[in-house]
Structure formats: structure tokens, C-alpha cells
Design brief:
heterotrimer; A alpha+beta; B alpha/beta; C mainly alpha; B: alpha/beta; six-stranded mixed beta sheet; six-stranded mixed β-barrel; 30% helix; globular; C: mainly alpha; 9 helices
């Protein structure tokens, strides 16, 4: 069975967050639990000239991130309750019936994918809208993207078509978890580990 | 069975499973929900769910009806009479040109607007002082009686000119339930049945450009954004579709697609590194707000001195470029060339070095930019509505047009006029609102003056149209689905003081869904249904190469005691004795059918009512080439003159020059025959910067359409209210990213977190507009509304709102 | 910091203290039994041993506050094969139950001393592995502040430092509470206490030295790490919690250093009274305990993940 993954074209993304809210609406997520988030990465300097003007090299771009249904899902490995499983199609799901709410998966995920539902006391996470995928439809975030920056599909095909870049700053080294993610970088993109810019919207993710 | 499984099963069986726990808690929750429903009459949204969302009873087509300029269909998932989920357009294979009209971030949160716990539930009458937000519940009959009594009294004492329908855009996507333009709303139709009301002209969005551009072109249009497919260079002045036209059916997506086709380089000129710049700009040129005309003047200087301008075009199509082409009777005035080269009255050459400190752009960059624009032909030069929403916005709007004119791009495929880019559309017949017997009109922005000193307002001082002078003050205000009564008007604190005086305006009727800042100023507050609780249809929004229309079926029954605006007006019409005239015997649905049939007279391809209702979205791809503004004029200027007095592009406008001689303007305000740079109050060079050193603008925000969606939790979470400031300015004030700060000037003080970012030019801060005005007991607006700080001073020509012209200071809260 | 993380501060600190105390009680007991008699050795160590029990149970109970869904708590050991968290919990349970069984046998003198000693050895070994298991839980590759050899070393330092001082405190209290008819033996017991405390003081000073060597190494490596996560951890430790950081160093220096020196000296003087000695030991224990809790708090708040 083909492994599914997300494809994200950073050049097309305006940071609008339609993906984030479409997801929240479908899964009825409370404030504080946000399965898909949009990270702003920005940087550059302003240098004052003598005539009151400035010269600058400012850049910014957005990265939309959910669970990447990693090939090496650390969340799954470290879960003491065996509550996380990987389906044959690669989708990593949490079974809340089994979850003890220790939040250890949260510590181990470099993408911030597993998130704690305070009300139910269990972890929750993007499940790639497996209900839609099983019915031959797109995940809500993909269907919602106004800029057509977000797709999903057979990971091998996505890599064949778009290359195998799986990380840009401020995402972590893909080696850590081997995410099922293919990225077309923004024209201003900084590589993973770069300190050229900073994660500019920590309060929003 | 593996050992692990065995163990799992063992463990699971020993503890209460989540499923049974949830069933148990759902039972309790159900009891609570029923109790709550009994108490408040609410309909409870399913809060708990099993693993996947339920199967809907039906999926209903509707649309998001707020004022963003886009228009997105929504598919509402309904179960047991409740909307439990919403998805966007999913029809077809998304081929560009017949693409899906995917909703923006806001549309996806529509459930939190429909089921907002603060939804207005029944008619209310003010009991506290006006603006206190203290109301008592009354019946519909009591509300209608109060309105009719007041209307009759005001008409008797002052006449219909004392009735005003305030600018309101909260429900502009509908056909019947439509608040904008106010003259096309059911309220206007009702008022027209009983003698009319005081009109207004202009909009809070476009007052200056809409007023000014026709003096140059006889119109205010530009090529379709589609034409970017045919251009070599895109130059956007203060134009930010990624945050103002966010629909996946429209402009931002189109911009991306058409640039892919042409490979055109793109430059964005903006004080902010906007999301449009992030998404599309090859280069961002950061500029001080209100200085666009200075930049253009310097660009013109380079073009003229380096002979890069299109002299043949200028000689053939324009008036006032040089001394040889001045209009008759104005030969002694400066020509544009005089102004630029310094051979005119001000004897100042508009060199890049002159413009650099004004605009903040290095002189060398200005020179390069001039060459780049002049040498790329065709070039697509367009402006958003930010540059014009300034104290000198009329001048900036016309100045930016000069770039298209100097380079001879007007009327060319792939060229431009410098106005805002347009979009292909199909037209639909609107709900008819009859004739207004009152022809007097004021500027959209000046109603507070009309309340305070109506009869003192004149044509040449206050821009009164249709009469030399207003006869009566405004005594009755209809405010249907709008927040310009306070929130979106300038100087909220000052506006509040005017509204609070019950001796001035006698009656304010607000028709709303939510307890907005404006609703708090109502005397009578009527609860409106949302557009999901009624049947309506949406004419299209901006979408570039595709025309469309949306049928909005009724998804759910009206919540609480809410009624449709058509119902309210019908009920009032009956009490005023004009029901037959108002309804013409038609229900809302019958009016929709009437509009569709009228539309089909001109456009037989438009689907009939039943077909339209079944299909949800009707769409047509633009069958022709991208539209080119003033193309026939370019092809043959003699046969197809512009709608200017000369028939030409009036670089020098004799009419504007005449106004500058005859109108009474406040000291410092400029109307000019030429599109010159005019420094303004609270502009980049105002000495007041010694006290308030930061220029402040207010960009459109992804979490709101103006103030609509400002109360939605998912939106507040996605994009919290925050003031953008450059790290240089932040550091100087000891402010770190995320710190709570206060932004203030003489008009007010707001409190909100700081976004410390390189994405804004130093010396300038931006407060996303539309946050809900929320003064605390000390008068600090903790909602962080930019208009608590903006100034109520109409612009010179349009008498429009200069909402991006402000000086402020910031300190740590 | 939220309640559920405070639960971890309490659990890890107290559990490590218990392991250290158990191991050291065993050591002291063997020493005392060889030098005097088993009965003499039992007098104090039995009491100290029994004091450990409730503390451990409290620590375990604290972990429940860490869980969002305590009803499923028994599932926490499901992934023993792969998850250090499961292993930690299993080891903690084995240590606790084993310790309880041993304590009960010791108290009732069930089976021979050899059997009991063997059980104690096994439980002590489990405890020592448990401390590693606790550290391994935090050896998360994406948390630079944690993913270092310093984490297990400092957990072992906590184990022995806090364990030792806890035992010292427990012996002093146990000695105080001896009944009248034990008076005859009191001299011998005091000798045991004094010798024990001297060793404890020496151990404390040594561990303190180790900590002060380790700290700059740790901070240097964290500062050298180029990831924004490491930088943020440094910022949290110094900019945000600088006062606590200094307080912690001060407390541990006073407790494990200054007080221990006095304990060592006082215990060696012939005129030493249990009152002075006891106050010094209890003071040292209190200071170090507070320092360790602050230290563990800082450990948790310094957690910043690589990535987003």
C-alpha cells in the first residue's frame, strides 16, 4: 500500500491559515488545540543611511505544518501506553481510548503535532482526515487551501514530482523523524538549522 | 493474539473506557444542554463527537456575506437543524478559469458567528445612557411602535432629510438582505416609500480614489488582473490582495497564476512587507505612509530628465504635461513638467535626492526604479486603497496614475492605468429600491457633522451635494449591519461623545446579529437573522477571469426571535401604511425569483430559480481577452473621448484647479490641478512628530473583514490583535515581541501586544483595523481598535476618511 | 509551570532520594553489622528504611497528577519494549514493591539475613537502574537542554546527595526517638551515627564538587549549540530564572558544602552532641532538598524543543 504524505508549496502560501481553521472546524477543536498551524519565518536587517533612508534585506515566508505522519514517528515509539499506531497507508493516529494523557509524545515531536485536549485529558493530533481519505476525498486543510499550496498523496509520487526536500527553517532536521512531507521552498527560504531569521509568530502556533 | 494485545485488552477491560466515560458524560452534558436550552432558548451545538464528524442530514449551499470584496460560497453541513461543520467550494476539478471558489480562513469559522453565545436574541430597548450597552427586552410590536413613532415625529418636525441610513457593509453579499450600498438596502426601499432620506456619497473604502481618479481619467478603472499574464512588470502601490481579497476564488490566487504565465517581475511598494509581498514580490520597496506622490514625482523626474517618458503618448492623449499642452485659460498655471523639474512656482526640482528623506527610499533606488518601470513595457501598475485612505489620498491616487501615463501604458494589453486592478464579472439585476425623493447628499464620512451642525454644512466647505447647504441636522439613524457608527469611523472616543448626546440625534435603530460596538449605541436594537437563516443569493465578488453567482439556501431556522430584515421592513411598512408599495405583493423568495428572471432577460444563459438553487454556484469563464481599461480611447481618442471635460487624460485638471480657488479648506489642506505631493497634518514631516514620533497605519487583517468576525474565538486565536513595529523602534522603547504596549495620541489610547518585526519600515507602526472598540473604565481601549487613535478630519476633495494618517507614540503597558 | 509538571518535579526528586537512601542504608547496615551486631545495625536502619516507604508512595501518587487521563494509568506500562517511560514506570513499581517487601521482611525478620540481604541487593540494583531509566526518559534528541550525559549524571548526583543527607537526617531523628530501655546501647548507636554522618558529609562534599565541575561543562555545551532551542533554554535559565538559578547554587553550596564541612568536623570531635550534629544534618538536608527541587524545576522549564 502506498504511503501517504503532505506536499506544501511555500512559494504559494500567504499565511492565511484557512488550512488551520478548516481543520479546527471539521474536528471541532477548542482554542489551544490546533492540529495544523502556520509558522511565519522572517528576518533581515535595516541599515540607516545618512539621508534618513534605510537599506534593508527583509524576507519572510510561511510554512504550514500539521502532523507529518513520519516514517520514524518518535511519538509512537515513546508512547508508554501504545496508544499511537501507524496505519498501512502511513497515517499515524492516536487512539484516545488508550491514551493516558502523559504528554510524553508532545515532548518528543519536533513538529508540535500531538496536542493535549484539556477537557478530555488525552492527546489529539492531525489524523490526515482519514475518514475523508478512506472515502477518496482530500483532508479538509488541503481542500480549503485558497492558494493551492497544500496537497496530499502518495509520498513516492510527490517526491518524484516535487523533489525530496522535507525541511526548511524553522522546521527540524528531517533525519530526526523522516516526515512524510515534501516541500517546495519559498524563494527566500532558509535551510533547516539556519539562524538567518526567526520564528516570528510564536504566540500563534 | 500477541502478548501486547493480550495485555492491552486486559488493561482496557480493567479501566473504564473513554467511550463509556464519554457516553456517561454526554448524558450529563445532554441534561445540562437541555437545561441551558430551556433557559436561554439556545440551540446547542454538538460539543462532543466520536472519532469522526457525523453524517449530515443535508449539505446546504450558502455564502459568506461580509465586505471583503471577494465572495465565497460555503457548504454548510446540517444535522438536526444545526450547522455542525462548514466546507468550501469543492465542485469540479479546479481548472483555473472554472476554479473552485475556496473560502478564506474566515469563512471556515462561520459556525462561531452563527452560534456566538452573544448573538442578539430578541428586540431590545436602551435603558441606560446611550452607548452604555444597557438594554431591556421588548416585544417586536413594542420595537416597531417605537420606531414608527420616532420616524413620524422626525419627519413631521424636520422632514425626511433628517433621516440617515448609515454606511454599513456587514451584510453586503446578499440580494435582498443587503446592507450595502445603503441606498440599495430594504431600509432604503422602505424609506423611499415614505418620502426618502438623506443620501451619502463615497465609501469608507475608496472615498479619495473614487473622487479623484475621474478628474484624471473620467473614470476609476484599471485593466483586469488577468492582464498580468500579458505584462513584463507588476508594480503594486499599497496593494495587498493577500490580506484584502483572500478568497481562493480570486485575486491572490489569480495573481500567482497569471504571474506564472507571464513570468513578470513584481515590485511591491508598501510601508509593510505585506503578505502579498511575502507571496509575490521580487522586491519590496518600503515607503513612509502618505508619500507615494513624492516617490512618483521623483520617478517622473528621472524619466523626464533621462528622456524615458512616452512623449508621443503624452502629446496625443493627455492635457497639462508641459507648457504646450495646458488647457485653454490655464496657460499661466504650472504644467506637470514645471512642477517636476522645478521650473514652476515652488522652484523645487523633484529629484530622487529630494524624495529620499520624504519617502524613506534611497535616491539611488528611486533612480533605478524609474528606469525599470519606464523600460518595461507593458507594465502593470496598480494601487490598492491604502495609499488613498490618507489626508492627501486624492493626490496620491492621481499621482500613482501618472506612472502609467508617463510610460504610455494606458489602454494597452498588459498595460495599466495605475488604479486598482479589475476583474471579469457577470451582472445580476439587483433588488429594486425605488427612487429617493431627497437628492441631498453628504460625504459618507461626515454624518457626525451633520448630527452636530447639519444646517451649517455647505457645498464648498463640507462637500454637500445636491444643495448648497444642508437644511436640517440628522435626527434619525438607521444602522443596519454596520459598525461605522463608531468602530469603523475615525476617532471612536470623539464619535462616542457625539452619539451620547441624546438631544442631537434622537433615534438610532441598529439591526444586527451581534452586540457590536455600534449596537451598544442603539436606542432600539433589532435582532437580525444571519444569511444562513434565510434564502438569498450572492452576486459575485472579485475573482479575475471567472464570473459567478451563488444561491444561498436557508440552512437552519431563524435562531431565537430573530427576523429577516425584509420581514422587519414589511412589518414596519404595514404600520406606516405602505406595505403594498414596499412588498409589491412579493415574499423574499419571490423577489429572488423576480431578480433572476430580470437577469435572464439580458443574460438568457443565467439559470432559472430552480436550477440555480440546485446547483449552488453558477460560474462562467471569461470568454474574451482580459479587459483593458480605456482601450477604445487608446485606439481612437477622437472617436472615443474619455469622460473628462477635455475628453483627454487630464494630468492638469481645470476643475480641480477651480476648486482649489473656490472651496473653503482648512489651513494646510490641498486641492491641486496637478497630482503634486502635498505634505499633511500628522504626515511624515509634521512637527508634531516631536511629540508623537511614529506614523500609524491600519492594515487589513486576516482574522477579520473590517470588524466582521472580530468576535470569533478561532479568528482571535489564528491572528491575535497586535501592533506591528520595527525592531529598531521597539528596542528604542525597551519593547520585546509579545509585550503588552499602549499606543496613544491626543485622541485616545489602546492596549495590545506588540509584534516586533523587520516587516515594517522604521518610524511606522500598523494596528490591524477592525478590532472591537472596548474602552475600559480608565478609557483605554483594550480591544485595540485603530480608530480610537485615528482623526476625524475629512480629506480635502472627497471629504473622505484619512484613516492611515496618524501620529502616535508607544510605551510598554 | 503547570501542575502536571510540578508532579514530575516531586516524583523524580523524591524517587531519586529514595533510591539513594535505600542503597546507602544497605551500605551502612552492612558496615554496622560487620563492626557490631546485626541487631545493633538493625536498630537505626530499620527505622530509616520504614521512613522511605511513605515517601516513595507519595512520589508515585504525585505522578497521577501528571496524567490527563488517570483512568488509563495502568496502560502506562504497555510499551516496555520501546518506551523508556514505560520502563521507568515498571522499574519504579518494582523498586517500590520490592522495597516494601524487603522492609516488611526486615521488620518482621522473615527469612534469614542472607535472603533478606540478597533481596535488598536486588532492590538496590533495580533502584540504580531506575535512576538511569528516569534520566533516559529525558534523553530526547530534540531537546538540547536535556539530551546530554549530564542528565543521567546529575540524576545520580541527586540520588546520592539527597539520599545520603536524607539518611543522615533519618538516623538523627531515629536516634532521638529511641526509647529509654535502649539507653545502654545508645553509646554504640551514637558512634554509628557519628561515623555515618562523617561519611555522608564527605560524600556530599565530593558530589558538590562534581556538580560544580559539571555545571560549566553543561552550560558551555548548551551555549555552543547553535539551535534556537538551545539558545532559548539558556535564555530561560539565565534571563528568565536567573534569581532561582543563583539561589539554587547558593543553597546547594551551603547545604552540601558549608554545612557538611561542619557535620564532618563536629562528628569527629569527642564532645559532639546529637543536638548540634542533628541540627547541622537536618539543616544540610533541608537546604539541599530545596536546592534540588529548584534545580529540578529549572530542569523542566529549560525544556525547549528543536523545531516548532
Amino acid at each position: 500500500m502506498a504511503t501517504l504524505g503532505f506536499y506544501f508549496n511555500s512559494n504559494r502560501c500567504t499565511g492565511c491559515k484557512a488550512c488551520q481553521v478548516a481543520c479546527k472546524d471539521k474536528w471541532d477543536l477548542k482554542p489551544g488545540v490546533t492540529w495544523r498551524r502556520v509558522v511565519e519565518y522572517s528576518g533581515g536587517n535595516w541599515v540607516a543611511n545618512t539621508d534618513g533612508t534605510y537599506t534593508q534585506n527583509v524576507f519572510a515566508y510561511y510554512v504550514s505544518v500539521a502532523c507529518n505522519h513520519c516514517e520514524n514517528p518518535l511519538c509512537l515509539q515513546v508512547c508508554p501506553a501504545n496508544a499511537i499506531t501507524k496505519r498501512d497507508d502511513g497515517i499515524v493516529v492516536i487512539n484516545q481510548d488508550l491514551c493516558i494523557g502523559c504528554r510524553y509524545c508532545e515532548w518528543n515531536c519536533p513538529y508540535g503535532a500531538p496536542q493535549f485536549d484539556e477537557e478530555q485529558g488525552v492527546m489529539t493530533k492531525c489524523n490526515m482526515c482519514y475518514d475523508a481519505v478512506d472515502a477518496g476525498e482530500s483532508p479538509s486543510c488541503v481542500a480549503a487551501c485558497p492558494q493551492r499550496a497544500l496537497y496530499f498523496g502518495d509520498l513516492d509520487e510527490l517526491r518524484a514530482e516535487h523533489g525530496d526536500l522535507a525541511g526548511v527553517a524553522p522546521l527540524p532536521e528531517p533525519d530526526i523523524t523522516q516526515p512524510a512531507l515534501v516541500i517546495t521552498p519559498h524563494r527566500n527560504s532558509a535551510p533547516v538549522g539556519s539562524n538567518a531569521g526567526m520564528l516570528a509568530n510564536p504566540e500563534e502556533i | 493474539m500477541s502478548e501486547t494485545q493480550l495485555f492491552d485488552d486486559l488493561v482496557t477491560s480493567t479501566v473504564m473506557s473513554r467511550r463509556s466515560f464519554m457516553k456517561w458524560s454526554a448524558a450529563l452534558g445532554g441534561v445540562a444542554a437541555v437545561m441551558a436550552a430551556g433557559e436561554m432558548g439556545t440551540q446547542v451545538v454538538e460539543a462532543q463527537r466520536e472519532d469522526v464528524p457525523p453524517v449530515p442530514d443535508s449539505i446546504v449551499w450558502s455564502a459568506c456575506h461580509v465586505n471583503c470584496g471577494s465572495r465565497c460560497p460555503l457548504r454548510l453541513y446540517v444535522k438536526d437543524g444545526t450547522v455542525f461543520r462548514v466546507e468550501g467550494d469543492n465542485v469540479g476539478d479546479d481548472t483555473f478559469g472554472m476554479h473552485q471558489l475556496r473560502a478564506c480562513v474566515r469563512g471556515h469559522s462561520i459556525r462561531q458567528r452563527i452560534y456566538d453565545p452573544e448573538r442578539l436574541k430578541y428586540p431590545m430597548r436602551r435603558v441606560g445612557p446611550r452607548g452604555s450597552g444597557e438594554f431591556e427586552r421588548i416585544t417586536w410590536d413594542e420595537a416597531y411602535d417605537a420606531i414608527v413613532t420616532s420616524l413620524n415625529g422626525v419627519i413631521e418636525r424636520y422632514g425626511n432629510e433628517a433621516i440617515y441610513i448609515n454606511y454599513a457593509t456587514g451584510a453586503l453579499g446578499g440580494t435582498v438582505a443587503k446592507s450595502w450600498p445603503p441606498g440599495s438596502s430594504p431600509i432604503a426601499r422602505l424609506m423611499n416609500c415614505i418620502g426618502g432620506y438623506l443620501n451619502h456619497y463615497g465609501t469608507y473604502s475608496t472615498a479619495q480614489i473614487a473622487a479623484a481618479m475621474p478628474y484624471t481619467y473620467g473614470g476609476n478603472s484599471n485593466n483586469s488582473i488577468e492582464d498580468i499574464a500579458n505584462t513584463k512588470l507588476v508594480v503594486y502601490f499599497g496593494h495587498n490582495p493577500a490580506e484584502t481579497r483572500m478568497s481562493g476564488g480570486g485575486m491572490t490566487y489569480s495573481l500567482q497564476q497569471f504571474r506564472n504565465q507571464s513570468g513578470a517581475r513584481m515590485i511591491v511598494i508598501d510601508p509593510r512587507y505585506s503578505d502579498t509581498a511575502v507571496n509575490s514580490a521580487d522586491e519590496w520597496i518600503a515607503i513612509h505612509p502618505g508619500t507615494d506622490a513624492a516617490l512618483v514625482s521623483a520617478l517622473a523626474y528621472v524619466m523626464i530628465t533621462e528622456n524615458l517618458h512616452d512623449v508621443e503618448f503624452l502629446n496625443t492623449y493627455t492635457l497639462g504635461f508641459d507648457r504646450d499642452h495646458m488647457p485653454e485659460g490655464y496657460e499661466d498655471q504650472d504644467s506637470y513638467q514645471d512642477y517636476i523639474l522645478g521650473t514652476g512656482a515652488d522652484a523645487t526640482a523633484k529629484t530622487p535626492e529630494w524624495a529620499a528623506p520624504i519617502t524613506g527610499i534611497p535616491a539611488q533606488r528611486i533612480t533605478q526604479l524609474a528606469r525599470e518601470i519606464a523600460l518595461a513595457k507593458p507594465a502593470f501598475i496598480a494601487q490598492g486603497w491604502g495609499p488613498q485612505r490618507q489626508a492627501n489620498g486624492e493626490q496620491s491616487a492621481r499621482a500613482i496614475a501618472m506612472l502609467a501615463i508617463l510610460t504610455g501604458n494606458v489602454g494597452l494589453q498588459g498595460g495599466s492605468t495605475g488604479a486598482r486592478d479589475s476583474s471579469y464579472r457577470i451582472s445580476m439585476t439587483a433588488f429594486p429600491t425605488l427612487e429617493n425623493p431627497i437628492t441631498t447628499s453628504i460625504s459618507v464620512f461626515m454624518w457626525p457633522d451633520a448630527i452636530m451642525r447639519g444646517p451649517e454644512m455647505t457645498a464648498t466647505r463640507d462637500g454637500v451635494r445636491g444643495k448648497d447647504q444642508l437644511e436640517v441636522p440628522i435626527k434619525f439613524i438607521w444602522n443596519y449591519a454596520g459598525n461605522c457608527l463608531i468602530n469603523q469611523h475615525s476617532d471612536c472616543n470623539g464619535t462616542a461623545r457625539i452619539l451620547e448626546d441624546e438631544n442631537l440625534c434622537e433615534m438610532i435603530v441598529v439591526i444586527e446579529n451581534h452586540m457590536t460596538s455600534s449596537a451598544k449605541f442603539a436606542d432600539i436594537l433589532l435582532p437580525d437573522v444571519t444569511n444562513y437563516e434565510q434564502e438569498d443569493m450572492s452576486p459575485q465578488g472579485d475573482s479575475s477571469n471567472m464570473g459567478y453567482a451563488i444561491f444561498c439556501s436557508q440552512a437552519i431556522e431563524p435562531l431565537f426571535e430573530c427576523r429577516t430584515v425584509y420581514q422587519m421592513c414589511t412589518d414596519l411598512a404595514a404600520r406606516l401604511g405602505v406595505e403594498e408599495q414596499f412588498t409589491e405583493g412579493r415574499t423574499q423568495t419571490e423577489w429572488l425569483q423576480w431578480c433572476i428572471e430580470e437577469t435572464r432577460v439580458n443574460n438568457p444563459d443565467f439559470p432559472d430559480y430552480d436550477t440555480f438553487k440546485a446547483m449552488g454556484v453558477y460560474r462562467v469563464s471569461n470568454p474574451g481577452l482580459p479587459s483593458v481599461a480605456f482601450k477604445t480611447f487608446r485606439d481612437d481618442p477622437v472617436a472615443n473621448p474619455l469622460r473628462t471635460p477635455s475628453g483627454l487624460i487630464e494630468i492638469f485638471s481645470p476643475r480641480l484647479h477651480d476648486f482649489s480657488q473656490t472651496w473653503e479648506l482648512p489651513e494646510g489642506d490641498v486641492i491641486s490641478g496637478l497630482p503634486i505631493y502635498a505634505p499633511t497634518w500628522e504626515g511624515v514631516s509634521d512637527p508634531l512628530r516631536a511629540t508623537y514620533p511614529l506614523q500609524m497605519i491600519g492594515h487589513h487583517y486576516k482574522s477579520r473583514t473590517h470588524s466582521s468576525y472580530g468576535n470569533v474565538p478561532w479568528m482571535k486565536e489564528a491572528a491575535p490583535q497586535e501592533v506591528w513595529m520595527n525592531s529598531i523602534d521597539a528596542e528604542a522603547r525597551g519593547i520585546a515581541h509579545g509585550d503588552l504596549v499602549e499606543v496613544y495620541n491626543e485622541r485616545g489610547r489602546i492596549r495590545l501586544p506588540a509584534k516586533v518585526t523587520p516587516r515594517i519600515i522604521p518610524g511606522v507602526v500598523s494596528v490591524p483595523q477592525g478590532a472591537w472598540y472596548t474602552p475600559d473604565s480608565a478609557g483605554v481601549d483594550v480591544g485595540g481598535n485603530v480608530n480610537t487613535l485615528t482623526k476625524y478630519q475629512p480629506s480635502p476633495l472627497a471629504k473622505g476618511n484619512p484613516q492611515h494618517t496618524n501620529l502616535v507614540e508607544i510605551e510598554k503597558a | 509551570m503547570e501542575l502536571h509538571e510540578w508532579a514530575l518535579v516531586i516524583f523524580t526528586t523524591v524517587m531519586q532520594m529514595a533510591v539513594g537512601a535505600f542503597v546507602l542504608v544497605g551500605g551502612i547496615h552492612l558496615f554496622a553489622a560487620r563492626r557490631y551486631t546485626v541487631e545493633t545495625a538493625d536498630k537505626l536502619s530499620d527505622r530509616a528504611l520504614i521512613a522511605i516507604g511513605p515517601v516513595v508512595v507519595l512520589a508515585l501518587l504525585a505522578t497521577f497528577f501528571h496524567l490527563g487521563n488517570p483512568l488509563n494509568a495502568p496502560r502506562a506500562i504497555s510499551n516496555f519494549g520501546a518506551s523508556w517511560l514505560s520502563r521507568e514506570i515498571v522499574l519504579a513499581l518494582v523498586f517500590t514493591i520490592g522495597g516494601a517487601v524487603f522492609a516488611f521482611m526486615q521488620w518482621r525478620k522473615i527469612a534469614t539475613p542472607v535472603v533478606r540481604n540478597t533481596i535488598a541487593l536486588v532492590v538496590a540494583a533495580v533502584g540504580l537502574v531506575l535512576v538511569y531509566g528516569m534520566a533516559a526518559v529525558y534523553l530526547i534528541p530534540i531537546v538540547p537542554a536535556w539530551n546530554t550525559i549530564v542528565t543521567p549524571i546529575s540524576f545520580y548526583i541527586t540520588t546520592f546527595l539527597l539520599g545520603a543527607l536524607a539518611i543522615g537526617a533519618a538516623y538523627v531523628v531515629a536516634y532521638w526517638r529511641m526509647r529509654g530501655n535502649e539507653k545502654a546501647e545508645k553509646e554504640t548507636q551514637f558512634e554509628i551515627v557519628a561515623v555515618t554522618l562523617r561519611w555522608i558529609a564527605l560524600l556530599s562534599i565530593a558530589l558538590l564538587g562534581l556538580q560544580f565541575v559539571l555545571l560549566p561543562v553543561y552550560l558551555a555545551s548548551l551555549t555552543a549549540n547553535t539551535s534556537p532551542a538551545a539558545a532559548e533554554s539558556v535564555r530561560i535559565l539565565f534571563d528568565q530564572n536567573g534569581v532561582l538559578f543563583v539561589l539554587r547554587l547558593l543553597f546547594i553550596f551551603l547545604g552540601a558544602g558549608v554545612f557538611s564541612v561542619f557535620v564532618y568536623r563536629t562528628a569527629a570531635t569527642s564532645g559532639a552532641t546529637i543536638r548540634i550534629l542533628g541540627s547541622l544534618v537536618l539543616g544540610a538536608f533541608a537546604l539541599v532538598f530545596v536546592a534540588e527541587v529548584i534545580g529540578r524545576y529549572l530542569f523542566y522549564v529549560s525544556m525547549v524543543r528543536v523545531g516548532i
